[in-house]
Amino acid sequence: MKYFLLYLTFFITSFTSLAQVGAGDGAANPKREEKIKALYVAYITQQLSLTSGEAEKFWPLHAQYDAELRSINDNNMDEIDRQQAILNVKKKYVSGFNKILGNERSNNFYKQDGEFRKKMVERLKQLRQQRLQNKPPAGNQGLGGRRRSLSK
Predict the structure, then answer these.
(1) Which of 83, 86, 97, 128 is most buried by its number of CB atoms within 10 A?
(2) Confidence of residue 51 (pLDDT cuts 50, 70, 90)
């Protein structure tokens, strides 16, 4: 439990640093992507309780899996076809993940993968809202955000 709380604290504070790294435009940011990937690897490793031997086999297979999923998301296709293609990739890799993790943990991987993505989207939305709330009103840009006193 102690390690879980420590990990959770690290996970939450890392999101804050992601907001600072990616606070600019909406374009892809390599540093942000690296941090998210590191968070993902730590999260999945912890949730699946991967041993070092399992991790050595799991992550290269996962890299192939992830590359196939990304190629699907890059294509312009109908939503139903896109979802079917994603499902096909997941089904394709089930046996490989089962060999490394077993059926139960392989199923848990797919669940935890979805949970991580949901948490990431929620947290990034919160950070974006906070950033928008902290912006000064459009009319005060010339004052540099400071009030100037008329008396000396």
Answers:
(1) 97
(2) very high
